Amino acid sequence: MTHTKADKSTIQKILIPVIAVTILLLMVAWLAGSFNEKVSPGLNNKISAAKIEQQKIYTLVASKNTIFEPVAASLEAKQATIISARILARIEKINSRAGDLVKKGDLLIQLEQNDLQSQVLQAKQTVNAMQARVKEAKQNFDRAVELFKTKLVSEFELDKNRASYQTIHAELTAAQQAFSQAQTTLSYATLIAPIDGRIVDRFAEPGDTAQPGVKLLSLYNPLSLRVEAQVREQLALTLSNGQEIEIELPSVNKTIMGEIEEIVPAANTGSRSFLIKARITYHENLLPGMYARMLIPAGEQIQLTIPAINVAHVGQLDFVWLNVDGKIQRRFVRLGKEKNGRVTVISGLMAGDEIITP
């Protein structure tokens, strides 16, 4: 029997869609896992095959733990100072930049002092001149006293010489004070470090004009760093001077101990909080202004913790194996922070549960 061209064309039109649909169905079945080996629901073979009596069982026990409330804080320097000029003068030299370590008494800034030195010299010469006049007036007065004893001068002349001597002596005292003041003003041209410390910032350059009260340098003592925080009044009232508290330093990933050294005895009316200052030990990587957290004790709570090795994971889910009436059961749990090999249980377990180590 022969097929015409029309019959073959019809068969092709029918077969092609059927083949395409068949291939599509096979692909869908493959993606759905129809050709994979099926595993019936149940426990992990390792766990289910093991006998409970051969497993290490940990009985969960509740414990009381202190609750700590983290309070945002910052590092501040107890000893910090701003260097500024007390006179109007041009800056000749600055010996320090930000980050430099300085010792107490080190020269930081030298101001122009030619005019001031001239004033000191002028005041000195005035003192010398007044000392000569006082010497002369004293001799005249002594001579008048001797002549008055012999009745060669009148009492009027004696009083006149005495008044002249006293006036010139007062002028000498004023000249000496002017000389001392000129020396003091000259000393203002040399700015020295008042404390041992580190330069924080530099606000002027040589050639600038220093004005009284305008900051030129700032520095602090690294050994005087402490942590300061505004603590809400209910917590602040439970604290006392000398009490030790934990302090977290996220930037250097450290937790250190601090000692409360000052509680400002007045609340901030805006936030209803008290300023708490805690002393800390010196750490090389700490700088003023860094962020910290004070962990303030805020009561106690019942807490469950389990060894971290008892926790198994499926993706982002955590679970443990339990002994429930002699049978092994898997239970998903919600966990908190891990510390010293133990992890806090938030939900999923209760005291008395028997956990099996896989």
Overview of the structural elements:
- This protein is an alpha+beta fold.
- It folds into 4 domains: 1-38; 45-66 and 302-357, conserved putative lor/sdh protein from methanococcus maripaludis s2 fold (Beta Barrel), CATH 2.40.420; 70-79 and 221-298, Elongation Factor Tu (Ef-tu), domain 3, CATH 2.40.30; 88-218, no CATH class.
- Helices cover 29% and strands 38% of the residues.
- It is built from 5 helices and 20 strands.
- The strands form 3 sheets. A 6-stranded antiparallel beta barrel has the order 2-11-14-13-12-15.
- The longest helix has 36 residues, at 114-149.
- The protein is elongated.
- Mean pLDDT is 84; it is low at 39-50.
As laid out across the biggest beta sheet, the strand order is 2-11-14-13-12-15
Morphology: elongated
How many β-strand runs?
Answer: 20
N- to C-terminal separation? 73 Å
Overall average pLDDT: 84
Uncertain segments: 39-50
Assign the structural class, choosing from mainly alpha, mainly beta, alpha/beta, alpha+beta, or little secondary structure.
alpha+beta
Helix fraction by DSSP (H/I, runs of at least 4): 25-40%
Count of discrete structural domains: 4
Strand content: 35-45%
Order of helical and strand elements: HHEEEEEEHHEEEEEHEEEEEEEEE
User: Helical element count?
Assistant: 5
Oligomerization state? single chain
Q: Please summarize the sheet with the most strands.
A: 6 strands, antiparallel, barrel
